[in-house]
User: What shape does this take?
Amino acid sequence: MRIEIINTGDELLLGFRQNTHQRWLGRRLNDLGYRVSRQVSIPDNGECIEGAVAEALSRADLVIVTGGLGPTSDDLTRERIAGLLGLELRTDANVLKHLDAFFAARNRQTPERVKVQAEVPEGGTVLPNPHGTAPGLALRVEAGRFRDGADSWLIMLPGPPRELYPMFDEQVAPLLGRERPLSSESACRNLRTSGMGESLVEEKLDQPLAELVGRGLGVHFCLSPGGVDVRLACVGASANNMVAEAEQIVRTTLPDHVYGVGDELLEEVVVRTLTEANATLALAESCTGGLVANRITNVSGASLVFLAGLVTYSNEAKQNFLGVHEATLAEHGAVSEETACQMASGALVKTGADYALSITGIAGPTGGTPGKPVGTVYIGLASKSGRPLAMKFLNPYDRETFKLVTSQQALELLRRRLTKDSVKNKKPPA
Amino acid sequence: MRIEIINTGDELLLGFRQNTHQRWLGRRLNDLGYRVSRQVSIPDNGECIEGAVAEALSRADLVIVTGGLGPTSDDLTRERIAGLLGLELRTDANVLKHLDAFFAARNRQTPERVKVQAEVPEGGTVLPNPHGTAPGLALRVEAGRFRDGADSWLIMLPGPPRELYPMFDEQVAPLLGRERPLSSESACRNLRTSGMGESLVEEKLDQPLAELVGRGLGVHFCLSPGGVDVRLACVGASANNMVAEAEQIVRTTLPDHVYGVGDELLEEVVVRTLTEANATLALAESCTGGLVANRITNVSGASLVFLAGLVTYSNEAKQNFLGVHEATLAEHGAVSEETACQMASGALVKTGADYALSITGIAGPTGGTPGKPVGTVYIGLASKSGRPLAMKFLNPYDRETFKLVTSQQALELLRRRLTKDSVKNKKPPA
Assistant: This one.
C-alpha cells in the first residue's frame, strides 16, 4: 500500500505558511496503520498540479491532494485534475444546496464565484464539508491509466485545517477501511507524559520495554513543549496484545507522568477531572498572560467548572483584583513564592472557587536580574482544604515557548493535585 | 532559475515532526529573490534518496537536500548521492581536524562512527559546520548528466536547524549569489487585511489591479482566520516599481482593512500603536476566555501598555470584577450590547486604563437560543473619551475558530479606533 500526499499552495513554497497538513495526515494515517511514502509541495499552478498528480498516480495506491478547492482564481485543483483525467465537471445539486444554506445562515446570498465549488468531476464521490464551503472529492482511477495492475484512489481535500481534519476522520478514514483494508493486524497507542525530558523518558523505559522491542514493538519519542509523547506501535498477529502490554509497562514505570492518551490535551484532562469532582477553578495569571485561561476555555464544557481568570499584568492589578499586599510586592517582588501564594489565595477567595492556580514570572526577553533570571517562574495553588503552596521553575526559553511550557507546568501541578484529592475523597464501597 | 528542496527523514512522513525546514528555506530563498519550485519529503531509504535526487537534478538548477548526514545507520544521504553521481568518497583532513577539536572541547575522543562525516565526494566543496559535526556539501553537476543545457548545483545540509540555518545564511546564500546571481529584479510584498472574506477581497481588488496584472504582476490571496493576506509579487526590470504601485492601489482600495505587512500580527500592530500613543489597555473577556490577553502578551513589550485582563466566565465574576449590574444580566442577558458596554466600562474604571475591550458571546457547541444562536458575539469598546459602544457579530464556527475569529475582530475594532484617535490627536505642524 503506497500513499503519496500532494500539498498545493504557493504559500508553502514561499515559506509563508507551515505545512501542518503534512504532519497531521502522516500522523493520522500512521495511527490507522498506513504509512506515507512521499510528500510533495507544489505551487498553485495548473501544469505543476497535473504533473505531480500524474506522477503520483503512476506509483501510488492512494494519492491525497490538499488545497486549491476554494473559489478564487488560483484555486485550480478541481479543474486541473478533472482535465488530467478527462472528466467533465458537473454541478452537484446537493452541494449547491449546502452552499446556499451556508450563506443563508450568515444572512448572505451565495456569491456567484463560490458556486464553482459545487462542480464535481463525473463519477466522483462528494465528501461533504459541514465546516466550510468546498466539499472534498474522491475518485477511483482505473488500472492502466497511470500504472498497471491496480486501481488507485485520488482524494482531494480542502486546505483549511478545521475543514480537512474532520473530513479525513469522518469520511476518508472509513473509505480507506472499506476500499484499502490493512492486510494484517496493526496497533498503535500514544501516551502523553509531562514533567520529564525526552532523554530521561527514553532512559527510564529502555530496559522495561526491551523484551517487547525485541519481539517487534516500535517505540518512538516525540518532544513537545512541556511534555514527551511515547508512541507504541506494532504490526503482526499479536499487535494489539503487545501494545496493550507495553502501555501497562509505561504506566507502571511512569505512574505520575502519563496524563493522557492519543491526542488528548492536558487542559481536557483537567476540565474532565474537575467536572468529575464537581469542583470549580479560578486562575490568576501574570507572565502567562491568559494562556492558561485560554487553554481551559478551549475545552467544551469548561463553563461548568471555570469561574474566572484574572490576568494581572501590573502590580496594581495584582493588588486590586487579587488582594496581594503592597508590602509583599515591595519586600519579595512580584515574582516570588509569597506573591504567587497570595495571588492564588486571592483568586480563591474573590471567586469562591474550589481551586485556584496562580502564575508569576519573567517571560523575557527583558526584566531579568542576577537573582531572578529571565525564565524564573512561581506557580501557586490554593484550595479550600489546606494552605496555599508555590513551586519554583526555571524556563529560559523564547517568549512563546516560555508561556507554553509554564502553562503546561501549571496545569500539570493542578492535575496531580486533583488526582490525589479525588483518590482521597473517593467514598469507600457501601 | 528552478530550485527544488528534498527533505529526508522517516519522522516527516510518519508525522512525528513538523517540516520546519521547508518553510524556513522557502522563506529565506524568497527573501533573497529566489523561488522554490517544488519540495519533496522522502524516508531515510537509499533508493528513495537516489530516485528523488536524480529526478530533481533532471529539472532543477539548484537542489537542496536536508538531513541524513549524521553518523547513524539511517543517515544515507552522503553515501547514496556519491554513489548516484559515481563519485568516490575521500576523507577530508580539515573536517577530521574539526571533528577532533569538536570532541576534544567536550573532553571526548572522536567516536569511530562519527568519522564518516569527514568523507567528501571527490570534487565536492565542504561547507564547514561551526555548530555541529556534519559539514554541508556542495557539488556542481555537469550538464548532460541528468539534464541538458546547464550545470546544476546540489547542496546537502545537516538536519538540525541550529546547524542548517547559519550554514545557509553564511555559506549557501553567498555561493548562490556567486554561482547563480539573479538575472533580473524581483520584488514581493505581503499585505495583511482583516474584516473581509477571501472572495470579497479578490472581488474588490480585481479591477483596480487588472492593468498591473496584465503587465506581469502576480497577486495571491491567502486565507487565515479573521483575515486575508494579499501577496504582490513581480519579476523583471521594473518589479520594485510595480509592486510599490500595486501596494498603493491595495491600500487605497481597502483603506481600513490593511493592518500590516509581511508576517506582522494584528496584536503586534495593536501593541505598537498603543505604545506610540502612550496609552494603556484593559480587557474583559467572556467567550474568548483569555485568548485576546494571551495574544497581546505574546508581544514583547506588552507590559508597558497592558494593565489587566479579566476573564469573567461566570455571571458572578462579571458582577464582582467588572461591576456589571445584576439587572442588566437579568433583563438583557450576559450576551447583549448592554452587558458588553458595562463590561468595557467596568474594566476601564477598575483598572484606570485608557482603552478597554470587552467580549461576550456564545462559543458553543451548546448554549444557543433561536434569538441568540451559537456564534453570537458582542464586542464592546470603552475609552476615556466618549461613551462605550458595542458591535454585534455572528461567528458560527467550531469553538477554537470562533475564539480566534472573535479575538481578531476585537483587536481590529481596537486598532481602527486607535488609528482614528491618533490621527485626531496628531498635533498640527507648528
Summary: Chain A touches chain B through 91 residues (CB under 8 Å).
